[in-house]
Amino acid sequence: MNILIYTQCFAPKIGGIESVMTNIAQQAHLKGHKVLVLADGSRLSSAEYDQGQEIEIKRFDQLKFLRKKTKSNFCHSILKEKKFDLIYFDSWKSLEHINKDLKIKKVCLVHGNEILNLKKEDRVNRSLSKANKIIFNSSFTEKLFLKNYKGYLKKKLSIIHPAFISNIKDYNNKKKYDLCTVARLEYRKGHHLILEVLYEIKKRHKLNLKYAILGNGPELSRLKDLVMKYNLLNQVDFLESYSSTEEVYKLSKIHVMPTITTPNSIEGFGISNIEAASKGLPCVVSNSGGTPESIHNNGIIVSENNIEELIDAILQVVKNLPKLSKKSLTFAKKFKSSSKIKEYLNCI
Fold this sequence. Notes:
single chain, alpha/beta, Rossmann fold, 2 domains, seven-stranded parallel β-sheet, six-stranded parallel β-sheet
């Protein structure tokens, strides 16, 4: 097949949507399909990455208004020159600029946050009406969508948990960290709750757990202040300069992400929990959004914003680490890249 990827989010940028769109492109290419990517992003900063790829990538880095117009014009012109079998869109915002009457199968992904603003309901409906298939990253996201947006046929909707795992390996090396969180530093990820838990565990149980935080974002300064407040300087390392998530998983025992739902933000799934599981890390997560769907019997789900449950869960996982590590590796096998790409390619 000839496949077109139309996306605002793509590597080398790091993030959940970037990971999904990049993996769809790369894995489709490995399956023998021809892939063209139309992506937002600076051509200068992406040049080295793009040159190292076997797929063709076209970047659009103009100002927002001009970028949308230039990108959609380019897309429509290339569709006249070359036959494509399938287009994947990263969100309704990308699909919005494509003509409805194009005779080509269109697949649009829905991740969660982009459908929360009901002031844009008409725009979202107009855009998604163009899609032949809408793919949600979790059952939670699909239910949220159907609650707010009416009239969609079930056969037009699918759920695919968006994690691509290429290597499942348990590192039996000596671990530097008891806990880690790999995620953008946003309030809804719950890093601040883990810092409070570390303080309480040290105070109540005289146990100094080491914690690695990998990521960057608006919460960085506040989290560093909390580390000072709770006297955790010797227990917490900020690894925002690290480029390898695998290295962090290699050095850690447990992945913790107690996500929180806010009026303007939800966690649609939790790809990092799957990535951690593929390296043998059990996961402790909250029941917020679609996060519970990113673990199975390889960890514990706690109530959102509940410090006491979070303390008990972490201590319980520490005690049962070997057994839960094996369950993590087993669970991660469901997300092997070679089989996951088939779900996306066969969605229509």
